[in-house]
Amino acid sequence: MTIEVSSLRKEFSSPSGTITAVDGIDFSIDEGDFFTFVGPSGCGKTTTLRCIAGLETPTSGSIRFDGEDMTGKPAHKRNLAMMFQNIALYPHMKVKENISYPLKVRNVPKQKRYENAEEAADIMQIRELLEKYPGELSGGQQQRAALARTIVHEPEAFLMDEPLSDLDAKLKVEIRKEIQRVHDRVKKPTIYVTHDQEEAMTMSDRIAVFNDGGIEQIGTPNELYQRPANRFVANFIGNPSMNFFDGTVNRASGETVVVSVDGRDVELQVVDSTPVGVGDEITVGVRPEDVRLDRNDGDLEGEITLIERIGKQMLATIEGPQGEIRVTLPADNSYGKGEVIRLAIETRATHLFDSGSDDVVT
Ligand code: ATP
Fold first, then answer.
1. Is any ligand 1 atom within 6 A of the Cβ of residue 45?
2. pLDDT tens digits along 115-169
């Protein structure tokens, strides 16, 4: 099935006035796509998902499944599976009754319901738990049972809203893999909502970056990382996040742009410099892994104010006239807090943003 969302808008009335939760968004999802909505809290992800599910009625715009207009259809007429943050297995029902519940509401006979529940349990590797009650299961087993319940009625698409946010880090990784395994097996479109960019980057075929009721950019994880459309996406995608500093273009020829930053000339390599001209006010974006610290060489200068461990690497914070810049370093580096050092920008694809609009210029 394909899902097509056009000019979707959803307003809520509240005592303080009208809230525009979703402000005219468009996207389409292909059969088999793992498509993620990512963005900060309150940007309209859940509302969009609920409109697709039929749990909210859009103020305007349309939702089509395989070309058919579903906008006014009630939730039970859409063959979708939903999984939310709260697992909500029914505590008084055995696991097999929980898993087969979506079939019960569709009036499937008991024998067939249990057969399908066993198949779904096999896929999730929890067959031995079918006769147990949810209270006897660990958190991870409950998640697997909940996943089995979403696949049991062979839905046309999966809608998942922050399904992992209540889990500890280790379990998160495990269930993430299970969700992907189910997706690879059933090959149905999946919409996954998260505010965690790392989760979005590891799981998705494509990602829509939401902000303030709109979509800033849609792309593959690589496209968003390497070619962010604007400063919001550049800042939101990637951890530790991109560094930004302001400058004025001094010279632009071919793929080299020289920018004046607080009186110093900084030479940058860009993918395509034609859109910038001498005198343009720009914001330079450079990722922490693309800056090199050096004791003698580099266009920028600053003092190391913090060195902290992030996983296998270290992250140094350098304060200078250009503002704060963060740089990843190998764990065995010899730099120390308080040292004044130079910074060289290493990447062949620096990001330049228009200082006014924050849109990428190259
Ligand atoms: P989160 O990650 O925190 O769940 P979100 O991106 O999913 O956020 P939504 O839940 O879609 O965001 O909310 C978008 C906006 O709409 C918010 O300002 C929210 O307060 C508002 N909103 C959502 N549902 C309602 C409602 N039923 N009535 C009034 N306002 C609502």
1. yes
2. 999 999 988 889 999 999 999 998 888 988 998 998 898 899 999 999 888 778 8
Which of the four pLDDT bands, split at 50, 70 and 90, describes residue 94?
very high
Residue whose Cα lies nearest atom 11 of ligand 1: it is 44
Which ipTM score applies to this complex?
Answer: 0.96
Q: Would you say the C-alpha torsion 168, 47, 149, 147 has a positive or negative sign?
A: negative
Residue type, 124: M
- Whether ligand 1 lies within 6 angstroms of the CB of 273 is answered as no
Three-state DSSP at 236 gives helix
pTM, to two decimals: 0.92
Q: Which of 290, 289, 296 is nearest to 339 (CA)?
A: 296
Domain with CATH 2.40.50.140 in the chain: 243-354
Residues present in the chain in total: 362
Q: Which H/E stretch holds residue 171?
A: helix 169-186
CATH architecture of the domain with residue range 243-354: Beta Barrel (2.40)
- Is the C-beta atom of 107 inside 6 A of ligand 1? no
Residue nearest to atom 25 of ligand 1 (CA): 12
Separation between Cα atoms, residue 149 and residue 29, nearest integer Å: 23
Atom from ligand 1 closest to the CA of residue 10 = 16
For ligand 1, atom 9: residue with the closest CA: 44
Q: Are 285 and 247 in contact (CB under 8 A)?
A: no
**Structure confidence by residue, pLDDT tens digits, 104-114:** 988 999 999 99
Q: Are the C-beta atoms of residues 45 and 117 closer than 8 Å to each other?
A: no
Q: How far is CA 223 from CA 142, 207, 346, in A?
A: 35, 10, 20
Rounded to the nearest whole angstrom, what is the distance from the C-alpha of residue 242 to the centroid of ligand 1? 28
Residues 6+ positions from 239 with CB-CB distance below 8 Å: 197, 198
Instruction: For domain 3-236, give its CATH number from 3.30.565.10, 3.40.50.300, 3.40.50.1010, 3.40.50.11740.
Output: 3.40.50.300
How far apart are the C-alpha atoms of 36 and 28, rounded to whole Å?
A: 12
**Residue 182: how many CB atoms within 10 A of its CB?**
20
Question: What single-letter amino acid sits at 157?
Answer: A
Sign of CA dihedral 186, 187, 189, 191: positive
